[in-house]
TrEMBL record, chain A:
Cofactor(s), by name: [4Fe-4S] cluster
Record protein name field: 2-iminoacetate synthase ThiH
InterPro entries according to UniProt: BATS_dom, rSAM, ThiH, ThiH/NoCL/HydG-like
Signal peptide: none
From TrEMBL, chain B:
Record's keyword annotation contains Transmembrane: no
EC class (word): transferase
Keywords recorded for this protein, A-Z: Cytoplasm, Schiff base, Thiamine biosynthesis, Transferase
Reaction equation(s) it catalyzes: [ThiS sulfur-carrier protein]-C-terminal-Gly-aminoethanethioate + 2-iminoacetate + 1-deoxy-D-xylulose 5-phosphate = [ThiS sulfur-carrier protein]-C-terminal Gly-Gly + 2-[(2R,5Z)-2-carboxy-4-methylthiazol-5(2H)-ylidene]ethyl phosphate + 2 H2O + H(+)
Residues annotated for 1-deoxy-D-xylulose 5-phosphate binding in this entry: 158, 184-185, 206-207
Native source organism of the sequence: Evansella tamaricis
Lineage: Bacteria, Bacillati, Bacillota, Bacilli, Bacillales
E.C. designation(s): 2.8.1.10
UniProt-recorded name of the protein: Thiazole synthase
CDD domains in UniProt: ThiG
Family: Belongs to the ThiG family.
Pathway terms, separated by semicolons: Cofactor biosynthesis; thiamine diphosphate biosynthesis
Length: 367, 255
């Protein structure tokens, strides 16, 4: 079983023509429905549905409050290592980018953890470049012994692993897995991932399934918006999330909407995804998957993040550093991408309260 | 004689149980809990933060309420058991609402795993309140496993759809000798009253209060509704006839 089978059924559809063929009447009908089909989701991503963003937003807001309440989960990223064996056109950690690489020692992990914990954050996501040698399962297991002292939920966003490796990490306390497909277009995928194990489109596509089979509690996926036509990319991302939700009932599925940001390489986004476009993708996803977690990172500007809080978002990061060792030694090395929102955890908490949301720092317990 | 509900060794005068999720802030939650007059409150252990006492959810729960920690997040019996033990170790008492959910699309409870967890925890001395999909046989198994009460869902959790499982719950109320607490799906005070009129021993409400425009007033409304429904039930509701009573009976000639 693999999402690749489903993906193969839809990947060659004439998306442009099908999106253009959607009518206002189609959108209106979908907005009356309680449970949406894949076709309904497609309709909400069409150009004509842009005229219904306010109605979509009202409904998305209602559904989110109903299922998640007036709450927002806060978390922080912790970068462990920027060693990477892949050459990717769009990423600052790419193997061929020359900069002093670094991997945190156990005492450095302890130091970073202390600083994050002092901000009152209990949920973290561990990130690394993709290198089985540097961010190895053994290294992660050793790190977990320290991290578990400080945090109640620990996720990973590292190189894709085999199922047995996820099983080992789950046993040691990893409860979340984030893996972005980056782009659901095999041709573009092969073009931007020039060399390295990441070139294997299908192994990456199957990663969430290997994680879910290993028992990992929460699975988070996403497409890097800007790599290909966003309506199609969002549609396939939603199908992927829905497929995971239907086939791996024990895992909570979340969707992120990372948008390309400026970075050290010369590669620039192929498609300009406007704020309006991103909002449409987010709202359509919320209406299609009312119980999916939706995550917005500090790649987005403070103003934009403030506005989209009520539109279906359930998780936010704050005060993020995308630099290895960046909490204890700011500005020492190269970040993976530039963050746009550098507000502190307290500032984000104040903002959320002002908007009538309870900031939630702990929503899991290592058991 | 005063109408009370005896559960887990406690004598409860109020039959509204309340939840603590989904509130905009803890202060408002505390006020709503006060206004509800409820004596039993459920808290997800996953949200409890023993290290941040001031900001912790327990801080704003009125001290006189009985805590009923729940195992939200558990996907099987073993996880539920581990969460229950942690709750006890955190000093949250020995009541436990078992929630085992292995379906993240609709969040429907897994009756089989719930029964398994009930047995383990009842044997350890917990007052076990299993949250379940209404099913008489499963309820009997949970009773035999040591449950103190049974908590069938009225409709999928958070759906605010009311008592959609009415017939199944009515059968459980009629056939079970344990308290039946209707949990989940109740969206309006009138639906809480409806559950009480059916003969439910209590109801548990969370989303409908927490996500109301005015949670404090809504908590009060639920308190009244639950009392009204209970009094209605105790007073003996008039029989409901499916057909009108004919004014010229066909069998009148029989005298």
């Amino acid at each position: 079983m693999s999402f690749y089978e489903k993906f193969s059924e839809v990947k060659n559809l004439p998306f442009e023509d099908l999106f253009q063929a959607v009518s206002s009447r189609d959108v209106e009908k979908v907005l009356q429905k309680e449970r949406l089909t894949e076709d309904d989701y497609f309709i909400l991503l069409s150009p004509i549905a842009e005229e219904y963003l306010e109605e979509m937003a009202q409904k998305a807001h209602r559904l989110t409050i109903q299922h998640f309440g007036k709450t927002m989960q806060l978390y922080l990223p912790l970068y462990l290592s920027d060693y990477c064996v892949n050459i990717c056109k769009y990423c600052s950690f790419s193997f061929n980018n020359d900069f002093p690489r670094r991997r945190l020692t156990m005492s450095e992990i302890d130091k970073e953890s202390q600083i994050i914990a002092e901000m009152g954050i209990k949920h973290i996501i561990l990130l690394s470049g993709e290198s089985k040698q540097h961010s190895s399962v053994d290294y992660l297991k050793e790190s977990l012994e320290i991290l578990k002292k400080y945090f109640s939920s620990i996720s990973i966003e590292i190189q894709p692993l085999d199922q047995v490796e996820y099983e080992e990490l789950f046993k040691q306390g990893i409860d979340g897995l984030t893996v972005y497909q980056e782009v659901y277009n095999e041709e573009i995928y092969r073009d931007i991932h020039v060399a390295g194990p990441k070139k294997d489109f299908i192994y990456r596509l199957d990663t969430p399934e290997r994680g879910a089979r290993a028992g990992i509690r929460s699975i988070n996926i996403g497409a890097l918006l800007g790599m290909d036509a966003w309506r199609k990319e969002s549609f396939i991302t939603g199908l992927h999330a829905s497929y995971l939700q239907n086939n791996y009932l024990e895992s909570e599925v979340g969707v992120s909407f990372p948008r390309m940001r400026p970075h050290a390489g010369s590669f620039q986004p192929k498609v300009n995804v406007s704020d309006k476009n991103l909002v449409q993708a987010l709202l359509a996803t919320r209406l299609f998957l009312p119980r999916a977690g939706i995550n917005i990172s500090t790649r987005e500007t403070p103003e934009f993040r403030d506005h989209i809080i009520p539109l279906g978002v359930t998780k936010m990061s704050a005060a993020s550093s995308t630099v290895v060792g960046g909490y204890s030694e700011p500005d020492v090395t190269q970040s993976q991408f530039e963050i746009s929102d550098d507000r502190s955890v307290d500032e984000i908490k104040t903002l959320l309260r002002r908007k009538g949301y309870q900031p939630v720092v702990k929503d899991w317990q290592l058991i | 004689m005063e109408d009370v509900l005896t559960l887990g060794g406690k004598v409860l005068k109020n039959r509204l149980f309340v939840g603590t999720g989904k509130f905009a802030d803890h202060k408002q939650m505390g006020e709503a809990l006060e206004a509800s007059n409820s004596e039993v409150v459920t808290v997800a252990l996953r949200r409890v933060d023993m290290e941040e006492q001031e900001e912790d959810i327990l801080h704003d729960i009125p001290k006189e309420m009985t805590l009923m920690p729940n195992t939200s997040g558990a996907r099987n019996a073993d996880e539920a058991v581990r969460i229950a033990r942690l709750a006890k170790a955190c000093g949250m008492g020995n009541w436990i609402k078992i929630e085992v959910i292995s379906d993240h699309k609709y969040l429907l409870p897994d009756n089989e795993e719930t029964t398994r967890a009930t047995e383990i925890l009842a044997n350890e001395g917990f007052v076990v309140l299993p949250y379940m999909s209404p099913d008489l046989m499963a309820a009997k198994r949970m009773r035999d496993a040591g449950a103190a009460a049974i908590m069938p869902l009225g409709a999928p959790i958070g759906s605010n759809k009311g008592i959609r499982m009415k017939e199944m719950i009515q059968i459980m109320i009629d056939e079970m000798d344990l308290p039946i607490v209707v949990d989940a799906g109740i969206g309006k005070p009138s639906e809480a009253a409806e559950a009480m009129e059916m003969g439910a021993d209590a109801v548990l409400v969370n989303t409908a209060i927490a996500t109301a425009s005015d949670p404090v007033q809504m908590a009060r409304a639920f308190d009244y509704a639950v009392r009204a429904g209970r009094i209605g039930y105790l007073s003996g509701l008039g029989p409901v006839s499916a057909t009108a009573n004919a004014s010229s009976p066909l069998t009148g000639f029989l005298g």
